[in-house]
């Protein structure tokens, strides 16, 4: 019994010993894996990580109205070298590495042959599978790379690996840059790129990739698991030629007047299509560049261009007409403790409402509005609201400034608000909002939304067609529109914008000069007043096709009136558009044509051909003498007279009157070298008929 117990205990101890030993082995192996071999296994686990990564779709293009590229995606490549690919033997690698490095140093001279070679040999020794060669490689450079030593063996035999990315470029660079805009990750979308990013972006694809050393993801195969779908193309309303003129004209005036910034836009009256939009501001380097879309985003006090809606409100309410008279006094008048002044010292005396608008009298306009609305100012405000001046346009481009047409319940409303609002102060509008209002006047009262895009296409097929959107079918009565149009024409014909008057076509519009208010210092800072000069109008005035606005901010060379600063930009754009738009020009009167004969005119030529044609047409021919192959013809009133044309093999023939085809046939058959200028029928030949033909001689034909 005692021996049995001892035997059992021995066996138990033995089992415990084996278990303890096994536990110690496991613990030792765990410590070894965790701390001794841990880094190696973690690296292997890292290297075996795979996942699906997005493959960026090719972003769609932005086009101008004529199909010119405004923005496109250019493929660029990241090139890497799998220096340890299984198929790349030491014999091939070391045998061709010098040649490869010479070629690389010639294509990408940022590194020498020795630097490339040292990098590749080091990478091979370290076991690198995805060594970076070059980023931002162009497609043409990639094509050349594929022909280099080692790389010409392909991905698996030569280790050449490349991934495509897309870089956004604007072929016309600064032209309409802010309106074209951009869409970048982490940045608020800007311009048309941002507005139509869903259409332009397409759908990204998927590709299985493996994560290797350094956190770099390497494609496992050349094919994508899910192919990306390219984005659609956006066709804008921008006319690239007008855009170029507008931008250059704006830059020239900004430089001339050392202005802070400025903008210009051209709108098609009936459709609202924006044909040109330029925004330039002074940079720290002293040059002008598109850094902000002032046309859309900058809401400021409009100044005298607001006198139009102010008077139109009074016309519409029946308080004022063009022939009413108003006293401008001595060019000043008082509203409470504030003095209203005209820029013209001494005033204009007693003048009509129409004349007050033409000369842009602050005193006259403010008195008219104050006298008629002083006891009911909200009626004036409500009338402006009915003309949509208090609402955003709702354009697709982000960043539209908020208009401000102050209501009488506003806490800042005062006794002088009404007269100052009437001349464009205590209110805010963006240049595009002003342009849209004036365009409605040109469009006989119909206000249309500014339009930047006409179509969206995918692979040439139209997927979305944009139509003109009407904001307000009639901002006021026809009578008010007619009075407004008469006043605007008068400004250019007899008023402040006479410098824009020309004999070719009529312009209607309004000049504007406003003092710029600073939030902190008011209208004056360091004894200086800053101004905003503007001109907005349409042309041709008798049949409006285009409306244009120009705003120049802070001209600083003591010239700040709208007609002198903004007017020339308007005129340059208008002249270009008028010269190139046939539809604007008056139709030419058709003159009666008294042709000598109704029989078709024919050139001299080969008789059989001419006879056949005249027979088919039923035209009577008459020959007064025997004719051979070549003839001269004379077209009469009722018949064609045919004469013999002498052609001898050894003498220069008379080829005048022949088509160039027949003349060349005859002369080259005689061994002559024929040159000709012009088009049509042979009028003159450099070698006279009848002279002996010399083979190889040069004869020149003059065609008309």
What's the CATH topology name of one domain? Answer: Beta-lactamase
User: Can you identify the CATH superfamily of one domain?
Assistant: DD-peptidase/beta-lactamase superfamily
* CATH class wording of one domain: Alpha Beta
Class per helix and strand makeup: alpha+beta
N→C terminal distance: 140 Å
Average pLDDT number = 85
Low-confidence stretches: 518-527, 591-596
Please state the overall shape, judged from the principal axes of the Cα atoms: flat
Keywords: Carboxypeptidase, Hydrolase, Membrane, Protease, Transmembrane, Transmembrane helix
Protein name: PASTA domain-containing protein
Organism: Vicingus serpentipes
GO molecular function: carboxypeptidase activity; penicillin binding
Features:
704 residues, seven-stranded mixed beta sheet, Beta-lactamase, alpha+beta, six-stranded antiparallel beta sheet, transmembrane, carboxypeptidase, PASTA domain-containing protein, single chain
How are the SSEs placed, and which strands pair?
Elements: H1 2-36, H2 38-47, E1 50-55, E2 62-63, E3 69-81, H3 90-107, H4 113-126, E4 131-138, H5 139-145, H6 154-158, E5 160-169, H7 177-180, H8 191-195, H9 197-201, E6 205-212, E7 216-219, E8 233-236, H10 240-257, E9 261-268, E10 274-282, E11 288-289, H11 294-297, H12 307-316, E12 325-327, E13 332-335, E14 338-341, E15 350-352, H13 353-358, H14 362-373, H15 377-386, E16 404-405, H16 417-422, E17 427-428, H17 431-442, E18 447-448, E19 453-458, E20 461-465, E21 470-472, H18 478-494, E22 508-515, E23 524-525, E24 528-529, E25 531-539, E26 546-553, H19 562-565, H20 567-580, E27 605-606, H21 607-617, E28 621-623, E29 630-635, E30 640-644, H22 660-669, E31 673-677, E32 682-685, E33 698-703
Parallel strand pairs: 2-8, 28-30, 31-33
Antiparallel strand pairs: 1-6, 2-3, 3-4, 3-5, 6-7, 8-19, 9-10, 9-26, 10-11, 12-15, 13-14, 16-17, 18-21, 19-20, 22-25, 23-24, 25-26, 27-29, 29-30, 32-33
């Amino acid at each position: 019994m005692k021996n049995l117990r001892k035997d059992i205990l021995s066996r138990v101890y033995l089992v415990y010993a084996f278990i303890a030993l096994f536990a110690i082995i496991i613990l030792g192996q765990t410590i070894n894996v965790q701390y001794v071999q841990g880094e190696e296994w973690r690296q292997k686990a890292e290297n075996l990580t795979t996942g699906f990564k997005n493959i960026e779709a090719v972003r769609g293009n932005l086009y101008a109205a004529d199909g010119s590229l405004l923005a496109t995606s250019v493929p660029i490549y990241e090139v890497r070298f799998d220096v340890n690919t299984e198929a790349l033997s030491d014999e091939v690698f070391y045998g061709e590495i010098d040649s490869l490095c010479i070629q690389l140093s010639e294509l990408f001279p940022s590194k020498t042959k020795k630097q490339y070679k040292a990098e590749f040999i080091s990478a091979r020794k370290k076991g690198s599978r995805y060594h970076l060669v070059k980023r931002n490689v162009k497609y043409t450079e990639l094509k050349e790379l594929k022909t280099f030593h080692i790389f010409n063996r392909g991905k698996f035999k030569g280790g050449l690996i490349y991934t495509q990315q897309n870089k956004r470029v604007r072929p016309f660079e600064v032209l309409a840059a802010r309106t074209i805009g951009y869409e970048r990750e982490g940045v608020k979308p800007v311009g048309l790129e941002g507005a139509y990013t869903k259409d332009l972006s397409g759908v990204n694809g998927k590709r299985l990739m493996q994560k290797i050393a350094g956190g770099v993801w390497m494609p496992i195969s050349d094919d994508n698991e899910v192919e990306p779908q390219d984005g659609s193309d956006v066709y804008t309303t921008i006319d690239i030629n007008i855009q170029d003129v507008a931008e250059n004209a704006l830059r020239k005036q900004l430089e001339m007047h050392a202005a802070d910034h400025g903008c210009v836009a051209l709108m098609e009256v009936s459709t609202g299509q924006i044909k040109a939009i330029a925004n330039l501001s002074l940079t720290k380097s002293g040059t002008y560049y598109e850094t902000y879309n002032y046309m859309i985003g900058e809401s400021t006090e409009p100044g005298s261009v607001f006198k139009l809606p102010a008077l139109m409100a009074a016309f519409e309410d029946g308080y004022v007409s063009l022939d009413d008279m108003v006293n401008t006094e001595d060019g000043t008048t008082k509203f409470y403790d504030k003095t209203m002044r005209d820029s013209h010292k001494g005033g204009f005396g007693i003048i009509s409402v129409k004349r007050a608008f033409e000369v842009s009298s602050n005193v006259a306009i403010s008195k008219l509005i104050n006298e008629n609305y002083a006891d009911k100012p909200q009626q004036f405000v409500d009338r402006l609201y009915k003309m949509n001046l208090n609402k955003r346009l709702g354009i697709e481009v982000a960043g539209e400034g908020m208009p401000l047409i102050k209501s009488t319940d506003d806490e800042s409303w005062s006794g002088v608000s009404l007269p100052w609002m009437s001349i464009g102060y205590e209110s805010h509008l963006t240049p595009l909002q002003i342009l849209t209002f004036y365009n409605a006047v040109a469009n006989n009262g119909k206000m249309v939304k500014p339009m930047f895009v006409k179509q969206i296409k995918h692979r040439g097929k139209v997927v979305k067609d944009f139509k003109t959107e009407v904001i307000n079918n009639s901002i006021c009565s026809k009578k008010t529109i007619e009075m407004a149009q008469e006043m605007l024409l008068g400004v250019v014909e007899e008023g402040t914008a006479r410098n824009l008057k020309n004999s070719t076509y009529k312009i209607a519009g309004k000049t504007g000069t406003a003092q710029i208010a600073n939030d902190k210092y008011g209208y004056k800072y360091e004894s200086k007043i800053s101004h905003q000069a503007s001109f907005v109008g349409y042309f041709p005035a008798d049949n409006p096709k285009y409306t244009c606005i120009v705003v120049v901010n802070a001209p600083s060379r003591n010239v700040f009136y709208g007609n002198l600063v903004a007017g020339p930009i308007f005129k340059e754009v208008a002249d270009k558009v008028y010269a190139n738009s046939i539809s604007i020009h008056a139709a030419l009167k058709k003159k009666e044509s008294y042709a000598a004969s109704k029989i078709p005119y024919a050139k001299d030529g080969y008789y059989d051909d001419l006879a056949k044609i005249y027979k088919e047409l039923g035209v009577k021919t008459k020959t007064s003498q025997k004719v051979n192959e070549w003839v001269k013809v004379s077209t009469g009133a009722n018949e064609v007279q045919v004469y013999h044309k002498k052609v001898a093999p050894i003498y220069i023939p008379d080829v005048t009157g022949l088509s160039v085809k027949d003349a060349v046939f005859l002369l080259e058959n005689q061994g002559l070298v024929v040159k000709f200028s012009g088009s049509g029928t042979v009028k003159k030949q450099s070698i006279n008929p009848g002279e002996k033909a010399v083979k190889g001689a040069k004869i020149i034909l003059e065609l008309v």
